[in-house]
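Margin note: ligand = NDP.
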Amino acid sequence: MRKVSIFGATGSIGESTYDLIARAPDAYHVVALSGGRNIARLAEQAIALKAELAVTAFDDCLPDLREALAGTGVEAAAGPEALNEAADRDADWVMSAIIGAAGLAPGFHALSKGTTLALANKESLVTAGPLLLAEARAHGATILPVDSEHSAVFQALTGEELSAVERVIITASGGALRDWPLERMAQATVRDASSHPNWAMGQRITIDSASMFNKAMEVIETKEFFGVSASMIEVLVHPESIVHALVGFKDGALMAHLGAPDMRHAIGYALNWPVRRDLPVARLDLAALGRLTFNAPDETRFPALRIAREVMAMGGTAGAAFNAAKEAALDRFIAGEIGFLDMSALVEDVISEMSSRQGLGNVAISLDNVMQTDAEARALSVGWARASN
Ligand code: NDP
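Resulting structure:
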């Protein structure tokens, strides 16, 4: 029996992971499940999977969790330290699917135990990629990508030499506002940006798809995870979300990964790796699809892609500033404080201010520096207002 844990079990990725594990309960022993405020669902999952432990990230949710688990034999715990302790528990495979920078620490704890980490939490690689990879190397742990694009690249690279790779192309659906003119994008509401054309995901990542901040994060993630240079990474808008990524080799060959837009593909691949097992996902009927389309992204309407390149060129803790400012900008957009296009203006201004103050690229990447940069970027983001306002 494989010992598994899911961090962020009550979220979109967490639920898909839960689904795959719940289909084969005899194959898994569930060590820990974590959630945030959705206590009813966390308790339900923990009881159904007979988990050892359920952890909520929030102390004030502990009484409700205790009550929901009373008499079931599942332990209850709360808070960031409890999350880290849960990640320290003996497990073979851990899903990292907490949203945001809060997912960083439990991932480090799991890696320090030599566990295989299925990494959905892209913030970990964007903010502290070199640290995370070093931690994995130091403890003989494996990191498997779960983002569909990175899983696709990983699969296309299997059996290949990295030195033969010329370029890595990740695709973007274009999100909810793909064809909107710039003037209309400026007026986009939270509701407009929250409906993804192809993928069913959490609200935050859906809005990040509409602004292409999600793709910008994935470009940085690609550089960090695969160790390719920024200039080798390309983004293609592909509205059908069938081709998830392509790897171009020196002989001109392009290896593409195709699959239905269902995260259980990438999660199941990571769960079963290094073997392939049957997965409950739709099989593609290419004749029925008829055509697949691709376009170059418009960086005027989606400045996040340009900002990502500047962040990669800076290095140091620029990724941490980028991620924190992006999260704070999204909070402010959802709260109705700033407009849709203000999000990229805010991120750019915060990075520029931090960079001129302390030279982000010169700050060595350590967990402390990442956390400090994160806190400073959030503080600046809260006070940000458009210069012309
Ligand atoms: P969701 O918002 O759907 O779920 C997030 C999970 O994290 C929930 O379990 C939530 O708990 C929990 N959580 C919220 N806040 C905190 C906190 N402060 N501390 C600890 N746990 C917390 O997110 P997604 O599943 O969409 O995304 C998870 C990660 O996977 C993100 O990094 C995202 O970028 C990445 N990803 C997502 C994809 C997708 O298809 N959704 C695709 C590829 C990557 P609760 O709901 O109980 O409050």
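The first strand starts at residue 2 and ends at 7.
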